[in-house]
# Entry
Amino acid sequence: MPDLDRPPLDADALTRVLVHPGGLWRRIDVLPETGSTNADVAHAARRGEPEGLVVVAERQLAGRGRRDRQWVSPPRAGLTLSMLLRPGTAPHTWSWLPLMAGVALCEAVGSGAVLKWPNDLLIGDAKCAGILAEVAGDAVVLGVGLNVTTRADELPPATSGPPPTSLLLAGAETTDRAALLGALLGGFERWYVDWRAAAGEARPVRLGDSYRKMCATIGRRVTIHLPSGDQLTGDAVTVDGAGQLVIRTDDGERRISAGDVLHVR
Ligand code: BTN
# Structure
């Protein structure tokens, strides 16, 4: 694919749109290449960098996925970025942050996009994006990987999860990376500012309601691979006030805080 179809991001233009006095975003760095933006931002957090740093990479050489997987994307074919947050709310509230990023991402991508709990972005049952949250002391690093113009022959091989896709392949509304990034970060900022003002409570800002509306897992038969290695099958009933997935199994109701979900039917 010629370069013209994958224009580089313009850090100055993004900064003009996203960085304002008193706003959440303080600095937007666009790196031509790095290992992992999550690793870079976690490192910055440990060095004491304040909240509001966003690192975007045009190419990642060691992109990290959930559960020790990799995130692979050709240069400028997608968005790979990490945000540095220091919420200052009680740590038990931080589990809402990756879900909030999922909501903001779903809103940015637009019609056809849904979430698979906890925060894979699906279009038509195929995965377009994933989110990786990592804690570094009192900071939370939120990493987002979104396939934008990736062609079928460039997608990673299918795993046991949903097949990969990109916005281009799925016929999404836009494949303009700068517009998507602006919408994602702008939308996330609005949710985050309200949520933090509510001391990290999801209910007063209706974050849970919005999440549930976008969550395609609710109502599905699911198999969950738990971090312990155990597996669980049941019907996904809802996502509760703590962001946990509520499953009805033959042995009763279970609340799941972490795991890999497979939509069975
Ligand atoms: C997943 O679905 O497994 C989560 C993927 C998260 C990938 C993003 S790409 C930007 C950021 N930096 C990383 O190393 N990983 C996240």
The chain has a mean pLDDT of 96. The two ends are 36 Å apart (CA to CA). The pocket of biotin is lined by residues 36-38, 60, 63-66, 69, 71, 80-82, 120, 130-132, 143-145 (CB under 6 Å).
